[in-house]
Amino acid sequence: MPSIEEQNLTEFLAEVKLKMENITFSKQKDIQKINDFIFSSDGKYVRSKIIFLYGQSVGIEYHKLLELASTTELIHLSTLVHDDIIDEAPLRRGKPSVFKFSGIKKALLYGDYLYTKTFSCLNSLENKDIATVLINCAEKLIEGEFNQISAMTYQAPSLENYIKIIKAKTAVLFSGALKSIGIHANFKDEDLALLYKLGHEFGYAFQLNDDLIDFFNESVTGKAKYKDLSEGKFTYPLIITFKKSTNQEEEMIYKLLEKKEYSQIVELIEKYNGFNATRIERDKSINNCIETTKNFIKLDSLDYVEQFLRDTLKA
Q1: Which domain holds residue 296?
Q2: Which pTM does this prediction carry?
Q3: Average pLDDT over residues 128-145
């Protein structure tokens, strides 16, 4: 039987989804056809979960959390649509991407449509400081996509550059959402900075976990196996391996990527403990999240939130 926390969270996510459906509704049949396709399945709504769990713990009104969550999810959704076009990805978590479902022209227009709806939501937010934070997040997400495209040259980026890409893409929206909660709660600057840092830590752990998932069975994770490798992305396990490889092995990795022969790459990653190194880094980041969370979550809710963090950030 689900706990009270789980029931409340489930109800909140259902309301977020309904609000997003209402915001994006269109009388234009092609737009609405894509809307119906997207909302026909349940998303992860990880950002909404974070907003609810932390927001209710610091006493933010329900309607403000709902408004913040739906706006944040729309920003995220619009970036996913454009990401799949850029990556030419036929699948999104085991289901046809919007690009595959509707064709590139309609997918591009739909992504633009979502951005207009997003900024309409931002303009209607009660707190203009929060609107500014989320607008900055949207800008950084686009900048992060440019940086990732620049890095996708089948050349291994440095670990430092890879972390910068993660912070600009995966982590920034988590940071913006958590900082927005702090603004709603009238937190002092030092606590706002701590929440922003927590979002970066969460996004970092989230991406490291996703890097590991790329090598798992699709039926378990919903993500196509070797999706990142097939798109020319050097993720954390491979970057760690590349740093430890001989010159001959480096050349071999490039050739294997070009030929899309990934099993030998996996053998090299295992040889140099790339997977274990990624898990260690991810777990360290998860523990940092939990320690920082103790500054904001009430003691009686802490166990539930800690379990949520571990379940969400660990494959």
Answers
A1: 4-313
A2: 0.92
A3: 90
